[in-house]
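Box 4.2: Ligand-aware structure prediction
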Amino acid sequence: MADFLAGIYLWIKALHIIAIIAWMAGMMYLPRLFVYHHQAEKGGEAEAMFVKMERRLLKGIMNPSVAIVWVLGLSMLYAAPATLSSGWFHVKLASVVAISAIHGFYAASARKFAAGERPRSEKFWRIVNEAPFILLIAVVFLAVVKPF
Ligand code: HEM
């Protein structure tokens, strides 16, 4: 199995990066929807539309793509386990666990919005929107440059 994965390693890596782009698109867009959701009239048509958009973004794009990012990342680890002893990979793994935790927090918040709550504030979602992107910048430099 490891030999087979090693043979298609670059294809896996390419699919890994494609899934990351889809995941990150959702991670950037969902908090924006929460900002507009906060501005919508309670019980109004706009609120119902935001609930639908948030659910579709999570279920249709973010959840499948985060799963694919992890499965393909772990497959590359299985094919090349030496990566596990690299310093850059330890910091990368901590960063992607943090981004995955933020994903979980967004999913829990979307459920609250769907239940008619308005978790946090508009300002909070405008600020928190940047966190995954800052982590992403660090992860990409670590994964490509492998500085240590
Ligand atoms: C936001 C999340 C992630 C980003 C932005 C990211 C980014 C990247 C990039 C850009 C590469 C290509 C590096 C190169 O070829 O030079 C890569 C490779 C890799 N990623 Fe990820 N990754 C993410 C999540 C994960 C996760 C969750 C794992 C799981 C353990 C993982 C494991 C790996 C492995 C093992 C490689 C191959 C390293 C190599 O052969 O150079 N990645 N990643």
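In the box above, the bound molecule is protoporphyrin IX containing FE. The mean pLDDT is 97.
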